[in-house]
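Input record, target 12 of the design panel.
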């Protein structure tokens, strides 16, 4: 996050266009799927989307679900369609769960049960998520032990699976066969900082820019929809979660800013941990400029890739 991946993807796509090679971008961002969540998701501009076709952006309302399995299925179809048009698909984004779903496939576990989920969330509103975490410890200790007591989204999902099926989520994962991986070859390019302090400063500047651009006003408008609440996946995205608490009067503006920056840093840390477990990735220095990284990427492509 805040590494310049969207800018690099656009620069790469523009370079391909200059060579009369069509390119289409597929977003791998779990927040950019939601309509009217533009500022806090750093969504590509309208101009960028007019210049280069983008997919999996603005395809859901904020109260609707979009799972990693849906991403995997949609992306596989899009790759085939884009290639059939004679264009090159480029997947860009930082949602590591989506990347894992595409690379490794997902376990075949039950889908969402919205009625059960709503009942769990109503109960959590009264008891609190730490109490729900304690309940999960009783029915699925394997899953509960890897979750924090405030991880509402994952606690809710684990309880939902247990209540809907009578079996623990961990049991489903252990026994259910994983689905197949992408079914096509791809090259993974990771933008990672050689100096993390530079990335941290970028994160601080970007979150301040989001606030200056009207993040709070954007969320105020979203909150007019009675279907939205704080525990929806869309509203638990980094930035929106902290802004929601601020609008609820739980924090002052300085605390909002500090918490938003800290949460984004934690997101970057988790992304880096996940990426470093992938030895096959091609690493570019996020501290370098987009033109520099584009030239480095093109050099790698010329020397070692067989692109189609």
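The sequence produced for target 12 reads:
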């Amino acid at each position: 996050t805040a590494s310049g991946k969207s800018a690099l993807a656009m620069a790469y796509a523009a370079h391909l266009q200059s060579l009369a090679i069509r390119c289409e971008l597929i977003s791998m961002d779990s927040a950019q799927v939601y309509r009217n969540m533009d500022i806090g998701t750093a969504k590509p501009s309208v101009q960028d989307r007019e210049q280069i076709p983008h997919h999996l952006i603005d395809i859901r309302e904020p109260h609707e679900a979009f799972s990693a399995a849906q991403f995997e299925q949609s992306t596989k179809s899009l790759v085939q369609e884009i290639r059939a048009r004679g264009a090159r698909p480029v997947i860009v984004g930082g949602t590591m769960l989506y990347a894992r779903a595409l690379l490794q496939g997902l376990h075949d576990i039950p889908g969402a049960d919205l009625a059960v989920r709503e009942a769990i969330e109503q109960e959590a509103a009264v008891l609190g998520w730490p109490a729900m975490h304690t309940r999960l410890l009783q029915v699925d200790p394997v899953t509960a032990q890897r979750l924090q007591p405030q991880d509402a989204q994952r606690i809710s999902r684990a309880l939902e699976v247990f209540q809907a099926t009578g079996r623990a989520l961990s049991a489903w994962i252990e026994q259910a066969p994983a689905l197949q991986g992408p079914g096509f070859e791809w090259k993974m390019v990771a933008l990672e900082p050689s100096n993390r302090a530079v990335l941290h400063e970028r994160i601080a500047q970007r979150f301040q820019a989001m606030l200056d651009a009207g993040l709070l006003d954007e969320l105020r408008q979203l909150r007019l929809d009675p279907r939205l609440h704080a525990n929806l996946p869309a509203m638990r995205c980094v930035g929106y979660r902290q802004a929601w608490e601020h609008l609820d009067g739980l924090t002052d503006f300085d605390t909002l800013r500090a918490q938003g920056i800290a949460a984004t840093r934690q997101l970057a840390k988790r992304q880096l941990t996940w990426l470093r477990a992938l030895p096959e990735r091609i690493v570019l220095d996020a501290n370098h400029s987009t033109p520099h990284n584009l030239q480095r990427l093109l050099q790698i492509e010329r020397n070692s890739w067989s692109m189609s």
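Residues 253-275 form the longest helix (23 residues).
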